[in-house]
Every structure is written in C-alpha cells, then in structure tokens.
Design a protein that fits this description.
The chain has 9 helices and 8 strands. The protein folds into 2 domains: 39-133, no CATH class; 142-250, Arc Repressor Mutant, subunit A. The termini are far apart. With 254 residues, it is α/β, with parallel strands linked by helices. Helix 3 packs parallel to helix 4 (82-93). Helix content is 44%, strand content 13%. The relative contact order is 0.12. It is elongated, with a radius of gyration of 20 Å. It has helices at residues 13-20, 27-37, 48-60, 82-93, 112-126, 145-159, 164-175, 196-205, 235-250, and strands spanning 41-45, 68-73, 97-101, 142-144, 162-163, 181-183, 209-212, 215-218.
C-alpha cells in the first residue's frame, strides 16, 4: 500500500501498544482510539489475540466496521466455526470487507480477493471527495479526534519545534476555548479519557513527528494538509518565518 500511496502511514497496532503505552489505558480503549484515528483497519485473523481483537471490533461498536478489512485464512472459507459464524459474520453484516488468503503460508499476495480490496481502498483514498477523506473542522469544546490530528500537524509545521504543553495551549487559543474533550466521529465520548500524549506517541511511531526532549517537530512537512488554516502558495512558509523572527526577537513570549 505504501508503494501505491506514498503519503500513507502504516501503523502496526502491536508495535504501538508495546512501545508507547502503559497501564493508564486498557487494550480495548487503545484499540478504540487507534481505530478512530485510522482511515482503514486491516485485521489479519491468525492467532488467539487477533480472534479477541476481531470480537472486540465486531461487537463493541459498528462505528468502525466500514473501515475494516478482515483477512481470514483459506482454511476458514465455508467454515461453520465460531469465528466464521460469530464475529466475522457480525463484522460483515455491519459493513466490513471479509476476504480470504493463505495467511498460514505467508502467501497473502496470491489472494485475488485481498489484492482487489486493497486496490479499491487505495483508489478511494486517492479521491479527495471520498467519504474516507472527509474531516470536520473542530469549532467547540467537543473535539473530533480524527480532525484534531491534521489540525495540530498544521500548528507544528508553523511553530516547530514546540513543546506539547505549548502546542495544546496554542490550539486552544486558535479555537478560542479553555478546555476540550476528544469525541468519536459519531459525537460520542470515548469510554475512557484519551490523552494528547497517546496521539503524540502514535504520530512518533508512525514516523510523522519527531519528539526530542519533549519538543515535537515534523519529519516530512510536505505531507501536511491545509485543513484548519488557509494558506496558498508559500504563504505558510512566510508565516513560519515571521513566527521564528518574532520568537528570536522576543524570546519565548510570542
């Protein structure tokens, strides 16, 4: 997928969980958070852990089903097993794509079904008017977490390197709010509070930002979308130069 879409960022949930999170967030809340900020979820059902993961996605909330591609081993095709007739059927009924591949033998690309679904996904992600690319600009204290990410990336591009606390305060100042709560795309709150540090860690593991002694900066600013702020041409670069000059002249109080 990365070859078809150079701007895509693939995150392995296991790697992110093992490298960046602690006991402050349970695994199911973590999966809910990761699914909410992702444009697509590809779940390879190949182990007891992934069976549980599939069950959590299938039964916890149908909100993510339209994002999910479930990849089952060929051994489960036409099977009457609990996996096939339980969570897989539930996910399919909720809108998830279910395909089969030789997972056991590592022959994923031999599956015409999987190749077709991935090509369709990348085609939709390339289309700007696709629903998969739609975001709602945050305008009050209930902040869509999927929109918060491109918004703060714009701020980082302008003010990098920037401390996490300063980034949050600048975001509040721009929005004209004193506090905010992250919500899902259906407007509901998360089952547990999602902290900004979770987002920073995800962006770091996805190699979108660098975190050095608490300062955040972009690894590739050219991928940043003009979502919240409206700049044309090199206007954003000129604005960044102005901010840097003010910071150099007045110190930290910009």
């Amino acid at each position: 997928m990365e070859k078809l879409l150079p701007d895509i960022n693939v995150v392995l949930s296991e790697q992110l969980w093992e490298d960046g999170f602690d006991s402050k967030i349970d695994l199911l809340t973590f999966e809910e958070f990761l699914a909410e900020v992702s444009d697509a979820i590809i779940l390879f059902v190949e182990s007891p852990g992934s069976f549980c993961e599939l069950g959590a996605f299938a039964y916890a909330d149908s909100l993510f089903s339209d994002k999910m591609i479930v990849v089952l081993d060929e051994a489960y095709r036409n099977s009457r097993s609990f996996i096939s007739t339980g969570p897989v059927l539930k996910a399919s009924d909720n809108g998830s794509k279910v395909v089969y591949a030789e997972i056991k033998y590592g022959a994923l690309l031999a599956s015409e079904e999987l190749r077709s679904v991935v090509l369709d996904l990348t085609s939709r992600m390339k289309t700007k008017i696709s629903s998969i690319n739609k975001r709602t600009i945050n305008k009050d204290t209930n902040v869509y977490i999927s929109s918060f990410i491109p918004e703060v990336l714009e701020i980082i591009r302008l003010a990098q390197p920037i401390l996490s606390a300063d980034l949050i305060q600048l975001y509040k100042d721009i929005k004209g709010i004193d506090t905010f709560t992250f919500i899902k795309r259906n407007g509901e709150a998360f089952s547990r509070e999602i902290q900004a540090t979770y987002i920073w860690k995800m962006l770091e593991v996805a190699q979108i930002v660098r975190i050095d002694e608490g300062y955040l900066s972009l690894l590739n600013y050219s991928k940043t979308q003009n979502f919240m702020l409206r700049y044309s041409g090199n206007a954003m670069d000129r604005e960044r130069n102005r901010i840097i000059c003010r910071k150099y002249r007045y110190g930290e109080k910009v």
